[in-house]
Amino acid sequence: MSRPVVALAIVLSAAVLVSSAVVIAELVTNAPRAEANVPSATIPLFEFERQAQLHCPDDSIVWATAGTGTYDSGSNRWYGRTSSGAFGCLHDAENAGYRARRVER
């Protein structure tokens, strides 16, 4: 290949890379934030299930994960098993904006 053709190929390749980088940067900066789903209100959370049951004796107990804004019921496999969760009352969690975690099949 002649030098002008190689130079043109290099310039076109660089233009494609720059435009791709601009598109990727726009996607990253305009992507929805994960924090948008995190509840804003705090709820009483407990280290032990019994503490939560004493706090709300007439309510169901859930395993709430504040970082994701989700909760697991006693029948879910993650109930009491994630490192960042704690026990709480179902009514408190739902009022604060927590949502039930999707059950994997």
Number of strands: 4
Based on Cα principal axes, name the global outline. rod-shaped
Low-pLDDT residue intervals, each spanning 5 or more residues: none
**How many domains, in number, for the residues?**
2
Number of helical segments with 4 or more residues? 3
Q: Let me know the average pLDDT.
A: 79
Strand percentage lies at 5-15%
Give the ordered list of helices and strands.
HHEEEHE
Structural class: alpha+beta
Helix % is 25-40%
For the largest sheet, list the strands in their spatial order: 3-1-2-4
Q: What summary fits the major beta sheet?
A: 4 strands, mixed
The gyration radius over C-alpha positions equals 25 Å
How far apart are the termini?
A: 57 Å
In a nutshell, what does this entry contain?
By secondary structure, this protein is an alpha+beta fold.
Describe the structure.
The protein is an alpha+beta fold. The protein has helices spanning 3-29, 49-55, 90-95; strands at residues 61-65, 70-72, 85-89, 99-100. The chain is built from three helices and four strands, in the order ααβββαβ. A four-stranded mixed sheet has the order 3-1-2-4. The protein is rod-shaped and about 85 Å long.
